[in-house]
Amino acid sequence: MLLENKVVLVTGGSRGIGAAVAVESARQGADVAIHSNRGGEVAEEVIREIEALGRRAIHVEGDVAAFESAQTFVDAAVEAFGRVDVFVSNAGICPFHAFLDMPPETLKRTMEVNLHGAYFMTQAAANQMVKQGNGGSIVAVSSISALVGGEYQTHYTPTKAGVHSLMQSCAIALGKHGIRCNSVLPGTILTDINKDDLADPKKREYMENRIPLGRLGQPDDLGGPVVFLASDLAKYVTGAALLVDGGMFVNLQ
């Protein structure tokens, strides 16, 4: 019960990595608030899983890229649970597209969701933690793409590098308040973001062969690492980045 009686907020929490982190946080004793855009029935499934574990949960719907969504989410969590102990910035998109004819609106939307949204949400959560006065933990889901390029991800990789950099700077800015800021860098995880790209058996086999552990990641592979960074087991860890990629990055070097 590494997060016993903590309150955890997760963006992009209705599916994929965010849902897995939300459920694992509940399994470790936390009450959980999830935020998603168009969550609907999928979000309700996550809520039911959390409640089945004996913890409380709420879902807040909104566009993570909108500045006002951040304060709305934090306020809803405080109203429901009284405080914010852990914030997980996970929401992100990656509409694969070639570089030379990248539509401006695709670039803009990816930047707004992945980077601006992470910034606004982290800022709102941090302000609540500072107001409470007893520290906290912020974990951002970056990506191995912060460290390596991708032909069809020229709009995406800069945002994930930015999220990692944001956590490094926030670790400095918020350390005096007892707030730790870290990032996890997932490798290739089977989520809605890449399900179409990996539908080709040859492409999937190629990706698997690049991973020393021999398989693609599952969303729940991120639950433990995020909980660890959020918990007191990592009480002297801040400004760090944890690769969760089955060894892909070291194999690519």
UniProtKB/TrEMBL annotation:
Residues 6-193 form the Ketoreductase domain. One of its GO terms (molecular function) is oxidoreductase activity. Keywords: Oxidoreductase. Its EC number is 1.1.1.-. It comes from the Bacteria. InterPro entries: KR_dom, NAD(P)-bd_dom_sf, SDR_fam. Pfam families: adh_short_C2 (PF13561). Signal peptide: none annotated. Belongs to the short-chain dehydrogenases/reductases (SDR) family. PANTHER family: (3R)-3-HYDROXYACYL-COA DEHYDROGENASE, SHORT-CHAIN DEHYDROGENASES/REDUCTASES FAMILY MEMBER. This is SDR family NAD(P)-dependent oxidoreductase. It comes from Brevundimonas staleyi.
